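To illustrate this point, we now present one chain and its tokenised fold:
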Amino acid sequence: MPEFALLTLPPGQLFLSCLIFIWSGFVRAGLGFGGAVLTLPLLLAVNDQPLFWLPMLAVHLLVFSALTLRSRLDNVDWSTLRRSLPYILPAKLCGVFGLLSMPTRWLVIVVYAITGFYALLWISGARIKSKGPWLDRAMLVGGGYFSGTSLSGAPLIAAVYLNHTSRGSLRDTLFLLWFLLVSIKLATFAWFGIDLNIGSTLLLIPVTAIGHVAGMKAHEFMLEHDRYFKRILGLGMFVIAAIGITGAW
């Protein structure tokens, strides 16, 4: 694959990809999660090869979470992070190896199915709630596994963290967790010789930065209007997921 494979896309698809990466930066910085689960289905409509996009999303998450955390590590809930990692990390590794062995078609269906599930929750206003230690652990394991397969386990993990972390520390704690999990994913990709598309990834960093800056500024507003924002978002993502699953099937 060419070093700047992104530039081999037709101009219309290239422009659309840039808009989607702006969106990914905005969602990630605004909510603290969702940059991948709300972006990958859109990118798959441009190019239906998950391993083309996942390294780019992973590197961007690494870069922008590091930028956000560089002066905010004292705001991280280290206790919750330490207690959750023994459940998340093994599942994460299982998910990564499952990704590398899963046929592309099935991976695409899984991504759209997960997106459709979260979309329905957001449309209905329902919340994923953890009501005890066993359910917490199951959700952390599930979130770790889906994070390994497609970077889409964030809402499950965030639901658990929301019950154990103050709202003011939630985003920074999640960013540090994403940094650790994505580092594992990228190291595994490199170990197995997966093309990380570094050239294309670097080209998209300034584009993603536009969305990141906008999301940082909109963070408080999005938290205050969380229910309405997610409901509108859910409607759009459900349509995309339904079309995507139909096409992949």
In short: The mean pLDDT is 80. The CA atoms of residues 71 and 172 lie 10 Å apart.
